[in-house]
Amino acid sequence: MAGNYAPCPQCGDTNAQLLSFTWWGGLIGPKLLTHVKCPACGKRFNGKSGKDNTVGIALYMGAISIFVFVLVGAIAVMVAMN
Ligand SMILES: [Zn+2]
Questions:
Q1: What residues have a C-beta under 5 A from ligand 1, the ion?
Q2: What is the spatial distance between Cα 68 and Cα 30, in angstroms, rounded to a whole number?
Q3: Which of 65, 2, 9, 33 is nearest to 18 (CA)?
Q4: pLDDT (tens digit per residue) in 34-78
Q5: What is the distance in A from the centroid of ligand 1 to the CA of 49?
Q6: Residue 64 CA to chain centroid, in angstroms?
Q7: Ligand 1 centre from 17 Cα, in Å?
């Protein structure tokens, strides 16, 4: 029986499991990017495309950085107005 995700790009195993937590994405990142791990070889990849997720992770981290930057800026403005 095939798994729910694309086969592993490294060994072809089809039982990849969705990661629940990663250092770069916390609890939400892996779900947004369908970041799965192959149980046979340990390779981590995108479970939808079956490709490496490095670009997605970089974009995700970039988006989080901008979000934090804007949030900190907004708080700074609010503090300055008081
Ligand atoms: Zn594999």
A1: 8, 10-11, 13, 38, 40-41, 43
A2: 19
A3: 33
A4: 999 999 999 999 999 999 999 999 999 999 999 999 999 999 999
A5: 14
A6: 11
A7: 11
